[in-house]
Write a structure and sequence with these properties.
alpha/beta; Rossmann fold; single chain; four-stranded parallel sheet; globular; 5 helices
Length: 140
């Protein structure tokens, strides 16, 4: 199974979600889900400095990575959009964070504390997502 988190630029929310999901799945001993992220308007920019700081502070992977642009929707991937408008853009193979727990607004250009709040909101959304996947598989 592959889950791809999608936001606008892939420098804040979706890359943070990818890194958080990888660790949360590992902590839950879920090994067969591949997590990725991309942006509908990504421009090969590096992960935002405040995103890196907060990821590191919270114990997640904070390495650099250039943003990845969403080029086409793949059939075998579950896309998780940060907001409902992004979901409408992506179409059928997508759920939005508002359907899990709560939409995740873009922290781009905001202060570090807003990124911290964003990370905590992502954690809650991902917790709900992983719970749903485990329940669907009969693991919980």
């Amino acid at each position: 199974m592959e889950v791809c988190f999608v936001c606008t630029g892939n420098t804040c929310r979706s890359i943070m979600a990818e890194r958080i999901a990888k660790k949360m799945a590992k902590d839950r001993k879920i090994k067969d889900i591949k997590f990725s992220s991309c942006g509908v308007d990504a421009r090969k920019e590096n992960i935002a400095v405040n995103a890196k700081r907060v990821l590191k502070e919270l114990g997640y992977d904070a390495r650099d990575r250039k943003s990845v642009k969403l080029k086409k929707i793949k059939e075998n991937v579950l896309y998780v959009a940060m907001t409902s408008p992004l979901k409408r853009y992506l179409g059928k193979r997508c759920i939005s964070c508002d359907e899990l727990y709560k939409a995740v607004e873009d922290p781009y250009g905001r202060e570090e504390e807003f990124y911290r709040i964003t990370a905590r909101l992502l954690e809650k959304n991902i917790e709900v997502l992983l719970d749903k996947i485990e329940k669907m598989r009969g693991e919980k």
